[in-house]
Amino acid sequence: MCRPLTISLAMASMLSTVVTNTTIAKPASAARSFKAASNAASLRPSVFKLTHNPTLRFEARRGVAMASAGGAETQVQKSEEEWRAILSPEQFRILRQKGTEYPGTGEYNKNKAEGVYNCAGCGTPLYKSTTKFDSGCGWPAFFEGLPGAINETTDADGRRVEITCAACGGHLGHVFRGEGFPTPTDARHCVNSVSLKFTPANKS
Ligand SMILES: [Zn+2]
User: What residue stretches are annotated with the MsrB domain (predicted)?
Assistant: First the structure.
C-alpha cells in the first residue's frame, strides 16, 4: 500500500474525480464507498505530486494556448465591409459566406497548366498544379495542399471536413479521404475555382 505508485496523467485525472466524489460522499454511502475511499487515500499523495508538477502544468497551459491559436484567428483580418470592397460578389459569397459554385462551371475545373493556385482572397499559395487531379466531381481537386496553408474543420453536423485558407480563413471547399483515388494521399481537396487564383509557372 505504501509503495510509490506509477500512474499516468490520464489516470491521475480520473483519480482526482474519485477523490472528489469520495470526499463529498454522504455517511449513508460510507460503507459502499469504503473501498474507493481507502484507494483514494493511498493514491492521494501521487495525485498531489502529479497535479503540482510544474512541468505538467506548463504543458497543460501550452496545450490550451495552442488550442486557442488554432481556432478562428488568422493572419489576415478584415471586416465584412473590407472583404466586400476587394472581392467580387461571387468571391464574397463563396470565400466569406461558405458558398459553393455550381459543379462543372469553375474556371479551373479542367485547367491542366503548370503553376500555383493561390487564395483568391489574400493571395497565399495553396496548391501546386502537380497535386491537381481529375476527380470527375465537377470542381478542381487536389490530393494535398502546400504545407501549413490550409486548415481543416469538421462541419457542425460532423459529416464533412471544411477546408479554409490558413492565412485569411477564406472558405475553399471540403476535403474527402479514403475514396480510393489513385493518388499519393487518397485525399480529395474539392475546391471552388472562385476561391482560387491561378499563377502559371514561369516557362523561361
Ligand atoms: Zn486566404
Answer: 80-201
Q: What does the pLDDT look like over 41-55, one tens digit per residue?
A: 333 333 333 333 333
| End-to-end CA separation in angstroms for the chain | 77
Boundaries of every domain in the chain: 9-69, 80-200
Taking the centre of ligand 1 as the mean of its atom positions, its distance from the CA of residue 175, in whole angstroms, is 17
SS3 176: strand
∠ CA 96-103-114 to the nearest 5 degrees?
85
Strands (E), 51-202: 115-119, 125-128, 132-133, 141-142, 150-154, 161-165, 171-177, 187-191, 196-200
One-letter-per-residue 3-state SS of 183-199: CCCCEEEEECHHHEEEE
Is 165 labeled as catalytic in the residue annotation?
no
Read off the pLDDT of residues 66-104 as tens digits, 9 standing for 90 and up: 333 334 578 999 999 999 999 999 999 999 999 999 999
Distance 104 CA to ligand 1 centre (A): 23
Q: What architecture is domain 80-200? A: Beta Complex (2.170)
Cβ neighbourhood burial of 76 (10 Å; 0-12, 13-18, 19+): middle
pTM over 0.70: no
